[in-house]
Backbone:
């Protein structure tokens, strides 16, 4: 049996006559962590949004567990139950407590038992250092806390794969580490992930494979050592040479 969880075939996305994604093909294996890097506007975030159905694709196909999920062949709620996504903007409901934010989808969409779901949420809050925040309102949380809550909200749906889109981009520098540590913990636990990031040291630490996107294409891919120490393409070399590496290190 193949261990390919997600398969993307010749994915294209056009905005206003411009190819944001020109022709992207990719296989993601179970428990694999793929990190996507590249300059702004190269199609990284659009790629994730096309995978989970937030953006309609212009061409190609997307498969999860060998089932095609593109072109509306699987409903949005079904996709969201299998593919979790966390954005840089948190997207918490400000009129709901932390507990209500976390349990809304599993209780209302999946019709899980409320008390059991709340107990699961408490365990996850404790795991991520937020045990005292279940009755807090989003306005009372730091950026790092909001982002960890957003992660818990996605993870409680028990997705098969997680997509992270620049989850530290809106955070103050001192909050970055607490969020990235959660992603590293998930990687160690075997969660399949696609991670768009500008944190290069983090990318090196967490990735099984690194994709360098440029002009809507995968311009180069390889292990972290391949990409960061021995990039082959001039465009990859130029991007990495112009990048200021983070001072934070990851064990």
Residues:
């Amino acid at each position: 049996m193949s261990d390919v969880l997600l398969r993307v075939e010749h994915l294209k996305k056009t905005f206003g006559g411009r190819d944001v994604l020109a022709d992207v093909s990719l296989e993601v294996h179970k428990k694999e962590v793929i990190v996507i890097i590249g300059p702004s506007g190269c199609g990284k975030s659009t790629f994730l949004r096309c995978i989970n159905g937030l953006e309609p694709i212009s061409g190609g196909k997307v498969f999860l567990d060998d089932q095609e999920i593109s072109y509306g062949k699987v409903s949005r709620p079904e996709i969201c139950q299998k593919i979790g996504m966390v954005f840089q903007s948190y997207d918490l409901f400000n009129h709901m407590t932390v507990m209500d934010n976390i349990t809304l989808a599993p209780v209302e969409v999946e019709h899980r038992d409320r008390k059991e779901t709340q107990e699961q949420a408490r365990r996850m809050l404790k795991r991520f250092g937020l045990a005292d925040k279940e009755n807090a309102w989003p306005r009372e949380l730091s950026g790092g806390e909001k982002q960890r809550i957003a992660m818990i909200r996605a993870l409680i749906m028990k997705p098969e794969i997680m997509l992270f889109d620049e989850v530290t981009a809106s955070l103050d520098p001192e909050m970055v580490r607490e969020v990235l540590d959660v992603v590293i913990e998930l990687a160690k636990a075997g969660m399949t992930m696609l991670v768009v990031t500008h944190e290069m040291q983090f990318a090196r630490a967490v990735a099984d494979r690194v994709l360098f996107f440029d002009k809507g294409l995968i311009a180069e891919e390889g292990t972290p050592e391949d990409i960061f120490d021995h990039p082959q393409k001039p465009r990859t070399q130029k991007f990495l040479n112009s990048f200021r590496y983070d001072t934070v290190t990851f064990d």
The longest helix spans residues 173-188. The chain has a mean pLDDT of 92. Strands lie at 4-15, 18-29, 33-37, 59-64, 67-68, 83-86, 161-165, 192-196, 209-214, 217-222. The CA atoms of residues 204 and 224 lie 5 Å apart.
